[in-house]
Amino acid sequence: MIIILLAILAGIAVGLWAPIIPYEFARYSAIAIVAAFDSIMGALNAIVKNNFNLKIFVSGFFVNIVIAMLLTLLGDNLDANIFLAAIFVFVTRIFNNFSSIRRELITRYESKQKVNTDEQK
Amino acid sequence: MKNAYIPILSLICLVTSVLITVQIRTISQSKSEITRLKNENELRDEINEWKDMYESITYKVSDLETKITDYKNAASANDATLKLLNREIEDLEILSGLTELKGSGVIVTLDDTRAINQIAADAGFYDPNVYVIHDSDILLVINELKAAGAEAISINGQRMTNNTEIRCVGPVIQINGIRLTAPFKITAIGAPDTLASSLKLRGGIVDQITQADIDVMIEKSDSVIVPKFDKVIEYKYASPIEEEDAQ
């Protein structure tokens, strides 16, 4: 956990130092960020549920980013807002993963309390 | 073995946080409202539209002006007093910028510094405000030229009249209601040496604005042309005081 936090802090440090991207590509990096965030939330959900698979996570992370960017490119060329659709899907999944994690943790916490009270009896 | 994913997960978190930070910086630095609100093509169309409109209007103006000259010539052809009045009108037209003028003078060219591309390439980002010409720079030069006895001044073909504004409008400068971009060519009629040396004084205008990374070029010439003010002078609110009013 601490390693992950350190990694995030290091990432912010590198990001502050790195050159910025041209504004035309900001849409693409935005969708990439949302895709990445979605993958990470999916991973956290899987970790909490103990069915985490590293290969699925890593492949999903990169493939999602690439596909999201390609779809945005296609949408820009077709003048269709595929960008928005992709954002919608990713954000929906982020919310679902969040609520799934929350539910899992609360259920686990409650069952633990129940065990404790049972033991006290 | 259970925590084998930690290094990879932290690596991916690192990548993501780099992305997010860079993205936030990008967005916060592309503050230009115009690029956000309108895309390039829309802006280009708009410019073309206005250009067409402007061209047709200037055409109309020159048409009407030839008519006026015709009438004037016809009226003054046979009357001596009218001829005198005509001369007075000519003088006043020079003063108000309604005639094209020729004479010795200087041409001052102000351009955004050429180092700008290099700076942009080095930094990946630059603050254009530091390197571009502002309305104040042009005002300084104009003012100095006037102080040195310039008789007529124009900027990129826009004649300076009594009511000419020099004003910053986003990335361009508006003069006589026309938007102009760098390089700015300031043409002034007057004594070439006096004009040039007053600009070049140590610590003077040229020193000040070259320090602000603006390229300045002063060219003396025996024959420069200052175009006329190509709009109609119209007074809606001001009117001269008649003697009855004055009492």
Task: Please describe what this structure looks like.
The complex is a heterodimer of chains A (121) and B (247). Chain A has 121 residues and is an all-alpha fold. Chain A has helices at residues 2-17, 26-48, 54-78, 82-120. In chain A, helix 2 packs antiparallel against helix 3 (54-78). The two termini of chain A are 35 Å apart. Chain B starts with a helix and ends with a helix. In chain B, the strands form 2 sheets. In chain B, strands 3-2-7-1-8 form a 5-stranded antiparallel sheet, with helices on one face. Chain B has a 3-stranded antiparallel sheet with strand order 4-5-6, covered by helices on one side. In chain B, strand 4 (166-169) and strand 5 form a beta hairpin. With 247 residues, chain B is an alpha+beta fold. The mean pLDDT of chain B is 81. Chain B contains 10 helices and 8 strands. The relative contact order of chain B is 0.13. At the A-B interface, helix 1, helix 2 and helix 3 of A face helix 1 of B.
SSE order and pairing:
The complex is a heterodimer of chains A (about 120) and B (about 250).
Chain A: H1 2-17, H2 26-48, H3 54-78, H4 82-120
Chain B: H1 5-29, H2 33-37, H3 40-76, H4 80-96, E1 101-112, H5 115-123, H6 128-131, H7 135-147, E2 152-155, E3 158-159, E4 166-169, E5 172-175, E6 178-180, E7 184-189, H8 192-200, H9 205-211, E8 214-226, H10 243-246
N-to-C series of helices and strands of chain A? HHHH
- CATH first level of the largest domain in chain B: which class? Alpha Beta
Quickly give the CATH architecture of the largest domain in chain B. 2-Layer Sandwich
Order of helices and strands of chain B: HHHHEHHHEEEEEEHHEH
Provide the number of structural domains of chain B. 2
Number of helices of chain A: 4
Distance between the termini of chain A: 35 Å
Give the uncertain stretches of chain B in residue-range form: none
Strand content of chain A: under 5%
Overall pLDDT of chain A? 87
Gross morphology of chain A is: elongated
Largest sheet of chain A: none
Q: How much β-strand is present in the residues of chain B?
A: 15-25%
Q: Classify the fold: give the CATH topology of the largest domain in chain B.
A: Alpha-Beta Plaits
**Total of DSSP H or I helical runs spanning 4+ residues of chain B:** 10
Helix content of chain A: over 70%
Arithmetic mean of pLDDT of chain B = 81
